[in-house]
C-alpha cells in the first residue's frame, strides 16, 4: 500500500499560519528585563474596592511623552456591537502604536470563519488590529508556571490547583454557561495539574466536587460560580495575589517596551487599568538605567 506524504499538509498549515495569516495562534509572553523596577506599588485590593464604584468604564490610562503608552481598561465583552470597539478603534488610530499587549492567552482562531471578538473579546479585537498593522503583539500576562510558582509560596498545592483549574470557567461563565461544565474544566485540569508544583494535586472532577463540598459548604456549586463579583473564601485571596503579580508584570512589560522606544497600546479588564495607573505613570516618568 502506497504511503501518503504528510509534507503537503504541513506545508499548507505553515503557509496558513505564517504567510497568509489565516490561522491565528496565541501571542507570545513577554519577559521584561530583570533591571526594570516599579517606582510605585500596584493598588491593593482594598484600595480598588474603595474606588471601583466611582470610575467610568472603559477606563483609559494615557501617557504621552518620552515614553508613551495607552491602556484601555475594558468591560469584558464578546458582543461585536458593543460601543467599546468603536472607542478602541478610534484611540488605536489616534495613538498609532508600534507594539500591542493583550490580556491572557487568546488561543486558536481561523480568520474568516471565526470572529475575533465573539471568540476572544476585546483582546481578539486588538490582536486583529495589531496583525493588520504588522506590529509586535504580546500577552501582558506572565507565563502561568511563574504565576503558579508565586502563589505556591503562600497556598497549598491543592488550593492553588483548584484556583488555576477553575479560573477559566469562572471567567467565561459570565458569557454563558458551557453545555458541559465538567468537560470544559477537565481540559484545564488535565493540563494545569502538569504545571511544576501542581502534579497530582487534583486527579478528577469528582475530587474537585469533594473539595468544593468540604471547603465551600453552603455556597453555590462551582458550576454556578462566576468571578464577575469576586470569588469565595481563599479563592478570592488567591485571585487577589495572582492579579497583583500579573499587574506588576504588566507594568514591567510596558516599561521595558517603552524603554526600547515602543509606543504601547494595551487592552485589559478595567480593574487592571485602575490598579496599575499610579505605578505605571511613576515608573514611565523615571530615568531607570
Structure description:
The chain is 48% helix and 11% strand. By secondary structure, the chain is α/β, with parallel strands linked by helices. It folds into two domains: 23-142 and 249-284, Protein-Tyrosine Phosphatase, Chain A (Alpha-Beta Complex); 144-240, no CATH class. Strands 2-7-5-8-4-3 form a six-stranded mixed beta sheet, with helices on both faces. Strands 1-6 form a two-stranded antiparallel sheet. A hairpin with a 5-residue loop joins strand 3 (59-63) and strand 4 (69-74).
Strand adjacency order, main sheet: 2-7-5-8-4-3
How is the biggest beta sheet arranged? 6 strands, mixed
Which value, in Å, is the CA radius of gyration? 20 Å
Mean pLDDT: 88
Order of helices and strands: HEEHEEHEEHEHHHHHEH
Any idea of the CATH class of the largest domain? Answer: Alpha Beta
Q: How many helical stretches?
A: 10
User: Architecture of the largest domain, CATH level 2?
Assistant: Alpha-Beta Complex
Q: What low-confidence regions span 5 or more consecutive residues with pLDDT below 50?
A: 9-20
Give the helix/strand class.
alpha/beta
Number of strands: 8
Portion in beta strands: 5-15%
Proportion of residues in helical segments: 40-55%
User: What is the terminal-to-terminal distance?
Assistant: 65 Å
Q: What's the structural domain tally?
A: 2
Shape: globular
CATH topology of the largest domain: Protein-Tyrosine Phosphatase, Chain A
Amino acid at each position: 500500500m502506497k504511503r501518503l506524504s504528510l509534507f503537503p499538509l504541513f506545508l499548507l498549515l505553515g503557509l496558513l499560519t505564517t504567510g497568509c495569516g489565516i490561522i491565528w495562534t496565541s501571542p507570545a509572553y513577554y519577559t521584561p528585563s530583570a533591571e526594570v523596577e516599579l517606582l510605585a506599588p500596584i493598588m491593593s485590593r482594598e484600595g480598588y474596592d474603595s474606588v471601583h464604584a466611582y470610575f467610568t468604564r472603559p477606563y483609559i490610562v494615557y501617557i504621552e511623552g518620552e515614553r508613551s503608552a495607552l491602556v484601555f481598561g475594558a468591560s469584558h465583552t464578546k458582543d461585536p456591537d458593543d460601543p467599546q470597539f468603536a472607542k478602541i478603534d478610534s484611540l488605536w488610530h489616534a495613538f498609532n502604536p508600534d507594539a500591542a499587549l493583550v490580556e491572557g492567552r487568546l488561543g486558536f482562531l481561523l480568520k474568516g470563519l471565526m470572529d475575533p471578538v465573539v471568540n476572544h473579546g476585546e483582546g481578539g479585537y486588538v490582536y486583529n488590529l495589531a496583525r493588520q498593522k504588522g506590529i509586535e503583539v504580546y500577552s501582558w500576562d506572565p507565563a502561568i508556571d511563574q504565576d503558579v510558582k508565586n502563589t505556591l509560596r503562600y497556598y497549598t498545592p491543592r488550593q492553588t490547583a483548584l484556583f488555576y483549574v477553575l479560573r477559566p470557567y469562572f471567567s467565561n461563565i459570565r458569557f454563558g454557561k458551557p453545555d458541559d461544565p465538567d468537560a470544559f474544566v477537565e481540559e484545564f485540569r488535565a493540563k494545569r495539574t502538569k504545571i511544576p508544583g501542581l502534579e497530582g494535586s487534583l486527579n478528577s472532577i469528582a475530587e474537585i466536587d469533594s473539595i468544593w463540598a468540604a471547603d465551600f459548604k453552603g455556597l453555590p456549586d462551582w458550576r454556578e460560580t462566576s468571578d464577575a463579583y469576586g470569588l469565595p473564601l481563599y479563592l478570592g485571596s488567591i485571585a487577589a495575589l495572582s492579579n497583583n503579580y500579573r499587574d506588576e508584570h504588566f507594568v514591567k512589560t510596558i516599561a521595558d517596551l517603552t524603554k526600547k522606544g515602543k509606543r504601547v497600546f494595551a487592552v485589559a479588564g478595567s480593574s487592571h487599568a485602575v490598579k496599575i495607573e499610579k505605578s505605571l505613570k511613576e515608573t514611565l516618568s523615571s530615568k531607570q538605567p
